[in-house]
User: Which sequence fits this backbone?
């Protein structure tokens, strides 16, 4: 009987819940009707959210600044980090300080640069014996030794040659703020959090922009299965590339390094592999050419033409260098009618990133998301 009534009512377009109300009269049956109504409402709401949901995947080479950009998006949406969130970065900042000073003291040996003060040689040896991963605070004797080392003219000479070895971009910032960082009860600032280097795993952040529900992923490239799954879910990609590495070489480089092996060319090749992948042919890409502030400083003393003989711009011209590197990346795009947006960025500048992301939301919504989500 129930099957016959259900089929007949479905045939005439009568809603299943209404049919149940008509046929049922007991308290138990009315409760079943209410549960059915709530399930219908949940399913409709879920379908509505799915239509509004958009996934964005942030990818790029190591040290390109993609994690900083991810944190910026989170901070901009939340209006700043909570005290509890910032406190959790204190140990990371302490370890970054040790990582930086140890890299400098190791480079002093590699580059054969002498210390101006012989006592600082002993400080350097002592600092080298500290296990960075076990650092949980900055003890007074460590702070004093690091302060003396940073003030040594030999270390400053070494820092000036930092393109010849791997060094945290935030080194000078943390060293100049050493007294504040070493103070009792230290709580990192928003800027400290943005500049802190972490061994990142896959992270995700979601928020409602009003127009759509945005999920942002920064996948861990070492977990290939999870990485592939996230990539296939993405509605669009942000590829982050560093502008400032045009004169730096990776650990895989030959000795002496080949001028055609440096990190900018490697980043451009990685971008080429992603943007031309047939699986992502119809997915928009946003290219962030990051660290424009470091490029502007570095280009004054490190000639781009040494590493890119085809560069014909004026020596020391940051704008010309940026345009050239942008062209280098765009020349790797081989997919016709590819939706590609390019932005020059400084990941640690919150206001400039806020403007960039506002532009992105507008452009993507108008040209792509509007058709998918509305």
Assistant:
């Amino acid at each position: 009987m129930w099957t016959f009534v259900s089929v007949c009512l479905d045939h005439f377009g009568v809603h299943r819940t209404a049919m149940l109300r008509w046929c049922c009269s007991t308290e138990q049956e009315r409760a079943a009707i209410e549960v059915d109504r709530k399930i219908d409402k949940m399913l409709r709401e879920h379908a509505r959210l799915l239509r509004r949901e958009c996934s964005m995947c942030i990818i790029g080479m190591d040290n390109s600044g993609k994690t900083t950009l991810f944190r910026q998006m989170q901070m901009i949406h939340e209006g700043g980090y909570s005290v509890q969130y910032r406190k959790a970065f204190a140990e990371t900042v302490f370890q970054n300080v040790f990582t930086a000073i140890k890299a400098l003291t190791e480079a002093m040996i590699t580059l054969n640069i002498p210390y101006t003060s012989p006592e600082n040689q002993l400080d350097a040896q002592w600092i080298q014996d500290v296990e960075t991963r076990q650092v949980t605070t900055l003890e007074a004797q460590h702070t004093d030794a690091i302060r003396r080392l940073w003030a040594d003219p030999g270390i400053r000479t070494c820092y000036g040659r930092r393109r010849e070895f791997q060094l945290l971009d935030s080194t000078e910032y943390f060293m100049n703020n050493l007294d504040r960082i070493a103070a009792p009860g230290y709580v990192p600032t928003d800027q400290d959090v943005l500049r802190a280097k972490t061994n990142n795993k896959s992270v995700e952040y979601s928020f409602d922009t009003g127009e759509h529900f945005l999920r942002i992923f920064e996948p861990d490239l070492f977990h290939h299965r999870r990485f592939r799954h996230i990539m296939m879910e993405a509605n669009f990609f942000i590829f982050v590339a560093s502008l400032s590495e045009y004169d730096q070489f990776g650990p895989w480089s030959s000795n002496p390094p080949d001028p055609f092996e440096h990190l900018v060319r490697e980043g451009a090749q990685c971008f080429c592999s992603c943007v031309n992948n047939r699986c992502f042919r119809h997915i928009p890409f946003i290219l962030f050419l990051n660290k424009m502030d470091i490029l502007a400083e570095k280009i004054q003393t490190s000639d781009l033409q040494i590493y890119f003989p085809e560069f014909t711009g004026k020596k020391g011209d940051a704008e010309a260098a940026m345009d050239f590197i942008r062209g280098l990346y765009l020349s790797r795009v081989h997919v016709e009618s590819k939706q590609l947006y390019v932005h020059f960025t400084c990941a640690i500048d919150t206001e400039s990133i806020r403007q960039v992301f506002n532009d992105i939301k507008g452009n993507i919504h108008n040209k792509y998301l509007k058709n998918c989500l509305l």
